[in-house]
Amino acid sequence: MGHTAVVGHTAQVTNASGASPAPRGRRPAHGEPVIDRAFALLTAFTAARRSMTLAELSRASGTPPSTALRLARRLLQLGALERGADGRYVIGLRLWELASLAPRGHGLREVALPYMEDLYEATHQHVLLAVRDGAEALLVERLSARDAVNVLYRVGGRLPLHSTGVGLVLLAHAEARFQDQILARPLVHEPEGVPVSPAALRRTLAEVRRTGLAVVERSEPGPVVAVAAPVRGGDDSVVAALSVVVPAGGAEPRGLSPAVRATARALSRSLGSPRSAAPPGTGP
What are the residue boundaries of the HTH iclR-type domain, all occurrences included (predicted)? Predict the structure, then answer.
């Protein structure tokens, strides 16, 4: 049984070995919670690293091998991980099931798909739908022709806010404090490696808000033009961005703008945006 050791005016319960047990309901001062370690294993997977051995998973997540083994076994039981005949671990379908319930992801995608398909039929290139997640844009859906120009981003992948069409739309309509935080960072257009001027970016964001469109021309991985517009939700806040990406020289941004703007507005109406329900030119 434990006994009570009194130090000054503070009573402290110790066990038979003299060590103080961890307080109930709180984790020890050292070490990460189990959920953090398990999440570190899951987030070690990337588009370039879709399957891993246990040793690779341990290194990629920064988790000790014995802990990685114990967590991986439990994640296998829960369906969050799966293991192939070669013994390598991959993300399990159970996570896909859960992710499909995310309203800003799958729910938005379901509503947006018919509108995206209309825009795709008009361009036969890439049509993107993205939401802001932290300091990046998250690609919720992408419709692409088989022979469409090469782009860097996949569904579920992340895009920079400062150098993509959907990113600029989301950044332009973010709160001012968040914009200041992004602009205070050293920003670079990747993969070109071209530094971004904060003053020029601030002017670009103002223009995006004024026109309701973001137009971006990029040279890598191939010359492309992106035209993006905001998608508004039931409270008229910008909940997503919709864009088309076409080869540079294949279409003039001026020619794409009306279709992108009209599609984003129609999608906003379906999401209950009062501003988008008003006739063009009469909203606030």
Answer: 32-93
79-90 pLDDT, tens per residue? 999 998 899 999
250: helix, coil or strand? coil
Q: What's the rounded Cα separation, in Å, for the pair 206 and 154?
A: 28
Pairing state of beta strands 214-218 and 158-160? unpaired
Instruction: Kindly give, in sequence order, each residue whose CB lies less than 8 Å from that of residue 5, ignoring residues fewer than 6 positions away.
Output: 11, 12, 14
Nearest to 40 by CA among 48, 28, 31: 31
Burial of 136 (0-12, 13-18, 19+ CB in 10 A): middle
What span, in angstroms and rounded, lies between the C-alpha atoms of 249 and 95? 41
Mean pLDDT of the chain: 84
Instruction: Collapse the DSSP code of 191 into the 3-class scheme (helix H, G, I; strand E, B; otherwise coil) and give the result.
Output: coil
